[in-house]
Predict the structure.
Amino acid sequence: MARFQKRPVTVTGLGAATLLLIMAAVVWLPRAIYPPLTAHELRAVAIGKEKIELQQAQAQVQNDFRGQLLQGMAGVVVTVGALAGWQQLRLAREGQVADRFSKAIDHLGSTTCDVRLGGIYALERLAKTYPEDQPHITYLLGSFVRERVSWPAGLPNGPEHPSSDVDRQLPWLSSRHPDVQTAMWVLGRRNVHADEQTLYLSRVDLRRASLTGARLDKANFRHANLASAWLVDAVLADTRLVNADLRRANLQGASLARADLRGAHLQDADLQRAILRGADLRGADLTGAQLDGADLSDANHDGTTVWPRQNTP
């Protein structure tokens, strides 16, 4: 343990040495730059009064320079002090952020729902106050959602995907998992940071989630269960929804431009006015889906795409 002990800093000795250095500079530097008149130069002056005046003028020049030197040193001291103060503030800020971040993470792991909700809102406030931390907070909330409502479709002993029928009696996500619904609200209204990684929400159970107007573009929802989810006007452009369960989902006015919907289950989904421009619909099942006013220009489809009878190309 002894080798980890901090040695005391001899501030007094360091300050004394600095003071001596400053005094030496103030005394020596003016004489070096403006040296006094030599005896030979003084002998060239015949009148004693003029000799005295010359010596006084020389001394005055040294004193003026000494005053300028002291002012300059005072400015340096003020600047150094300001820099030291700024450094202390920066370190204090980083310590405060780290402490708040750590407490928020601890709250996410609480067994009490209200405490978890407090942790989610604390992370949202941190992301708004310190945007550079947004990518880490987005990743953390995505991990929280995956852990809380895992839907291990396709894995051994995993759930049937898609299930034989949509459970119409299932409560809204806000009732089943209010913390997960809140985390999704926060993710859906965040300011996306340029350094964010893809929001990974594959194999999650978001049945009957309420995500009106949520911005979730470029997210990964592969094999996710979004049956009966409310996604009116949601931004899902460039989103991966491969084999996702979107049966009976309300996607009115949603932007699904260039979305990867291969093998997606869209039976009875409401896609009125939805933007599906450039979306990949190969293998997607749209039986009973409502497509009135939907933009399907440049959508990629083939013989494996199942269309509603009235919308068969």
In short: The chain has two domains: 17-77, 121-313.
